[in-house]
Amino acid sequence: MQPMLYSSAVGVVLLLSACATSHTAVLGVWLESGRASSVRTIEFFEGGALRMVDEHLTEEAFGEVSQETGTYEWVDEARMTVDLDGLASVAGATLMTVSIVADDLTLTQPDGTALSFQRAHGETSPLAARRAPGGIEARIVRALTAINSGQGVFAAACSSGFYAPSLAVLERPPRSGGPGFIPSNLIRDSDVEQRYRFVLTAGSPVRSPMSCNMAAAGTGVEMYFVAAFPRAGQPGHYFGTNHHAGPIYWSDVEIPVTLEGAPPDANPILR
User: Fold this and answer.
1) Which of 55, 82, 99, 262 is 20–30 Å from 23 (CA)?
2) Domains identified in the chain and CATH numbers
3) Measured distance CA(47)–CA(81) in Å, rounded
4) DSSP secondary-structure letter at 26?
5) Residue range 61-98, pLDDT digits in tens
6) Inter-residue contact 203 to 221 (CB < 8 Å)
7) Phi-psi group of 262: left, alpha or beta (phi > 0 → left; psi -120 to 50 → alpha; rest → beta)
8) What is the spatial distance between Cα 182 and Cα 188, in angstroms, rounded to a whole number?
């Protein structure tokens, strides 16, 4: 479980080390290092206000933002209390030792666990510059996950172990009846279609049999890459995936077609 900096209805006591020469040293935005599930910032304002923001990096909530606000109050030259609102916690007060050295902030818990932060300069989040509005990116990631799942079922149940060479083939229902392997409206939702484009790039065709949904013999493939990228003029990150059981990747720039392995300079999204 990720260590927490706070508890509900009680104060978190922070001890400021001698490395910080004044109370103003803690003011500003700090970006936590080493978090995999979200980009977390903590911001101390003049006057005693505090805000903690998480931008999530998981498949279910990629790009979505949650935050907690609260207050802090200096007890003396070396200590402060912090109260965050709306948190359901019964852990009680947590005593944190704080070290500020130049642009590095370290919060050490009583058990010795240290949380590291760096002072944010300019843009506070690597997601913010390109983030699409309205939670659309979480829907893009879920759509890519559904495509991967559909490819896995198609290969196992419909095409003798081979993947579909196009999204259209995945949408097509089996000849015996039932739904297709991905919903026909998966990427045609009005918000999704207006902002993002999906492209499946198939590997070289192999000697595959006709599939159960009438894809021609010899059109099945052993590898594929699906990209989702913002349409011209639309904000948003770039996404890609290439295996039915593999991760979804994201990047600030277009991800090159990568039929096998991790795409270069792209970040895997946690499940």
Assistant:
1) 55
2) 12-119 (2.40.128.360), 136-268 (no CATH)
3) 13
4) G
5) 777 778 888 877 777 776 667 677 765 344 445 667 77
6) yes
7) beta
8) 12
